[in-house]
Amino acid sequence: MRLQAALFVAACVSPAAAIYPDEVNQIDFHHALLGAPSFDSTFFLKPSSASNASLLYTISENSILGAINPRDGALVWRHNISRPAGGAGLLRGLDGNNAVVGAAGDYISSWGAQDGKLIWETQFDGGSVADIELLEMEDATAASGVRDTIALIAGKSFGTVRRFDGDSGAVKWEYIDDSGDVPFQVSSSPTEIFYISLQSGLLKSSKVKITSLDPVTGQQVRQHILNTEGDITGPESVLFVGANSASPLIAWTDKSQKTLKVNVIGTKRVSSVTIDNTSGEEIQEITVHAPHKLSSLPHFLVHYKTESGAWAEVYHVDLKSAVVSKAYHLPYLQGQSVIATSNIDANVYFTRISDLEAVVVSSASHGILGRWDMDAPSSDRSVAAVTEVVSKGKSVAVRSVILRKSGDWQLIRNGQVEWTRPESLIDAVAATWAEVEEQEELAHELEVEGHESLLGAYIHRVKRHARDLQHLPQWLQELPQRIISSILADEVTNLDSFGVSKPVIVATNSGRVYSLDTGRQGAVIWSTQAAEKPWDVKNIYARAGVVTIDSGDGSSVVVNASTGAIVSRSAQQGPKLQSIVNFEGHDGSSPVRLGLLGVQEDGSPVAPFDDITGFLVTTSADGRVLGWVESDNKTPVWEFVPPSGQKIVKATARPAHDPVASIGKVLGNRSVLYKYLNSNLVLVTAVNEKEHVAGFYLLDGVSGKVLHSISQAGVDPLQPIASVVSENWFAYSFFGDVVGDSSAKGYQLAVSELFESSIPNDRGPLDAAGNYSSLHRTGNSLPLPHVVSQSFMIAEPISHMAVTQTRQGITTRQLLCTLSSSNSIVAIPRPVLDPRRPVDRDPTSAEAEEGLFRYVPFLDFDGRWYLTHSRDVTGIKNVLSRPTLLESTSLILAYGGDVFGTRATPSQAFDVLGKSFSKLQLVLTVVALAIGVAFLAPITRKKQVNMLWRAT
Ligand SMILES: *[C@@H]1O[C@H](CO)[C@@H](O)[C@H](O)[C@H]1NC(C)=O
Ligand SMILES: *[C@@H]1O[C@H](CO)[C@@H](O)[C@H](O)[C@H]1NC(C)=O
Ligand SMILES: *[C@@H]1O[C@H](CO)[C@@H](O)[C@H](O)[C@H]1NC(C)=O
Ligand SMILES: *[C@@H]1O[C@H](CO)[C@@H](O)[C@H](O)[C@H]1NC(C)=O
Ligand SMILES: *[C@@H]1O[C@H](CO)[C@@H](O)[C@H](O)[C@H]1NC(C)=O
């Protein structure tokens, strides 16, 4: 049997604690997000003329621009160009041009369309970008084929049109308009560049002024004003300004929406078309769709939307006379529908996507080229669509991207949904793991049994098992298959029943709730609109199949965790809340809610909390930390005010679930250092912004007594300061002076550990006490901890800290640090951060036995600590950890920008068989041994008998 034992041991040992390549996408998932795409800056584009494959480009409301692979919806590249000044983002691209140009606020940049590498960028003072276009016209001077950019910059009292060189971003010319008009848009025809501005006229109405510029010099060629008085009141009443089109158009309607007026930019003629208002309903929205390509036919489509349906008219423009004539119309259809335009060479195609079908027509005639039935309609309203049409002989194939109201987008190919990107997850403000109903049921039954009399509990249990018998036939039926699949399957251990692949529920600022399947790469199980934007979520709590989400205005929503259906809602009530406290206990691995209490802006609880045994620590708007006990919500029992000039920036406490496996630390020589364990520790961070001092105060939450305080000089208050408390230690990080050398500055990570006494085997003043109380001091006051600290220099800022949680706390903890500058999350093992590491000498043999190694001031993040390995996980604001039924494993979820989830096994997966463990091999070994024994036993017996005979 030695072989078998060796096999077993070999399977259990794994060489290093890190994420293996075959675990990527198995144990972790990542939603790399852009945010809600802005639909006039979303398009399909062939990034290079050498290939026919196109990518999808967009810039989101969060000003993140990026490229998506239309095949699977995977992110190809992205860049966050968001500016503090704000302003909507714009993105432009041209087929065959290997750059896309994006703008946001006061910033314009050009990026390689294929690889997302920066080509040039520019920033200007005053004003923000109102419009950009790529010049499609051929330019003999451009060597690389990268097209020039025309940008319109709107300042306070002027407008500037600039032409930027496609390769370098250098300004070729500039046209300044200081007439006081409102800069509106730029457009181009094959020969001219048009600058369109709105000149304010009488009675709040505006006239459209068109200035033609010479593309080479930027000189004004001519200027004319369209008589739009009475129709146009501002930029919002112009329906459409065409750009890069053979016949650029401006379209608007009169005030009563009875006639549509169209001007071909560059001409003075305004064509009027009567709107056929035959639906019997009020027209709510008119949109104009025209191709964006110089070589395309001068056709356009007008889409009319009413409350319950929509129809569309297609118009042709006569280029010589600039006359607009109606060609045909697309009939009125009930339900929502969206239109998209696409080109193949000069031909223009319109795709109409409604609830039931997708239809492609050519702009030239009303014959339907392709029609597909749609999957079930979505409750999330479609807002716009972008399509790519390819011709296949006489018919066409189409892929469309539908942008939904929630900000999510979907690719639909021939009527089938290929992928969905849940972009509204980018605004995630709260998240938790769903609690499954059955488990709670069992826990409840066990609790009942625990509380009943012996006989009652016995009868209850027999009844429960009798009820379970009804599942027996099914279980027996599945048994053979389970055995076979468990022996043969590649995945030796399916850990789902240990609570490692619980769904995650995420609530977003836009009012949506998502459920993500952590077992299937974070796929969306359901999503629902639960509230209006902005949703000020203060608390999220999951129990027995439902999730309750409370917001700052006192309202709450209960959602069914398995379907997303809204179970109940409660209306807004009471004052505005600063936060909501969830009094939570822990029962094994599942949280138990004891009560809920709102905290007002001034730090006082909205009501006394008589029914909950406990105390409460809050921060107030005026920078104090307050302590409260049960019966009083008017006067705090204690308050902590930091030294004058310091402002409280953060207060952290130990996590609700923070089990301590051992009350002491066994040293190498078998003596014990007792941990200072106080479940009421509060770590307060305060900053003096003028004197650049940060103070860290460790308080006892019950009495408000300061147990320990640290002051750091030379701190940069604009850099992130993160802190965390767990067990008997706390950690914080900041940017400031290096201790003992005020001329050097850097990012630092400091760790302090609390012990009852500095002497081993000594429990300090508490030694003889049977119990102690922070409040009712008899004789000696609350003893102070013995604090051992050490700090490390680190290479980059830490924006958030958390600690891994496991069921019993036996597994070593890891400090989870979010690195905002390298877009990753590292898990630093606690032994590395042991403040007792020997300084300036090698450890003695006793210390080495304890696992201590020599202190080095610079902490280099080991590649194996990166939970995110090579992924680019951006914008993380919060990291959560949660225990599973396996002691070795802790669940981790990060959200705030991207959403990332993984499992951490800080002491390796000691209670799980590894992937290399083969059950089949084990079974075969046992069988082989059994055969061997059966075969050899008679021979051996015979031999022994023979030997006995020979001996005598
Ligand atoms: C792109 O498509 C066209 C026609 O559909 C074909 O002639 C051409 O060879 C294709 N080019 C590449 C690089 O695949
Ligand atoms: C269109 O017709 C409906 C009903 O006949 C009317 O209410 C509406 O005012 C008309 N005009 C527009 C622009 O909606
Ligand atoms: C949630 O929905 C499922 C399916 O409709 C239902 O079986 C379950 O009872 C619901 N749970 C709650 C708590 O309403
Ligand atoms: C054990 O080692 C610690 C230092 O590591 C020392 O302070 C203590 O006195 C030692 N105890 C005994 C009993 O030797
Ligand atoms: C983008 O950058 C801005 C500031 O530069 C930052 O505030 C924002 O959080 C970033 N967004 C994401 C999703 O990373």
Provide a compact summary of the structure.
With about 950 residues, this protein is mainly beta. Helices cover about 10% and strands about 45% of the residues. Among the domains are: about 40-180, Beta Barrel (Lipocalin); about 435-495, no CATH class; about 920-950.
Largest sheet: 4 strands, antiparallel
At the first level of CATH, the class of the domain at 38-178 is Mainly Beta
Roughly how many Å is the radius of gyration?
Answer: 35 Å
Q: What is the first-to-last residue Cα distance?
A: 34 Å
Order of adjacent strands in the largest pleated sheet: 1-62-61-60
Helix/strand class = mainly beta
Annotate the secondary structure layout:
Blueprint: H1 2-12, E1 29-31, E2 43-45, E3 55-59, E4 64-68, E5 75-80, E6 90-93, E7 99-104, E8 107-112, E9 118-123, E10 128-134, E11 149-154, E12 159-164, E13 171-177, E14 182-188, E15 193-200, E16 206-213, E17 220-226, E18 238-241, E19 249-253, E20 259-264, E21 270-274, E22 283-289, E23 299-306, E24 309-318, E25 323-334, E26 337-344, E27 347-354, E28 357-362, E29 368-373, E30 382-392, E31 395-404, E32 409-413, E33 416-421, E34 428-433, H2 437-451, H3 454-468, H4 472-488, E35 504-508, E36 512-517, E37 523-529, E38 537-543, E39 546-551, E40 556-560, E41 566-570, E42 577-587, E43 590-600, E44 615-619, E45 625-629, E46 638-640, E47 647-653, E48 664-666, E49 672-674, E50 681-688, E51 693-700, E52 706-712, E53 722-726, E54 729-738, E55 741-755, E56 786-794, E57 798-803, E58 814-819, E59 824-829, H5 845-850, E60 878-883, E61 890-895, E62 899-904, H6 919-951
Antiparallel strand pairs: 1-62, 2-3, 3-4, 4-5, 6-7, 7-8, 8-9, 10-11, 11-12, 12-13, 14-15, 15-16, 16-17, 18-19, 19-20, 20-21, 22-23, 23-24, 24-25, 26-27, 27-28, 28-29, 30-31, 31-32, 32-33, 34-35, 35-36, 36-37, 38-39, 39-40, 40-41, 42-43, 44-45, 45-46, 47-50, 48-49, 50-51, 51-52, 53-54, 54-55, ...
Helix pairs in contact: 2-3
Bound molecules: 2-acetamido-2-deoxy-beta-D-glucopyranose (5 copies).
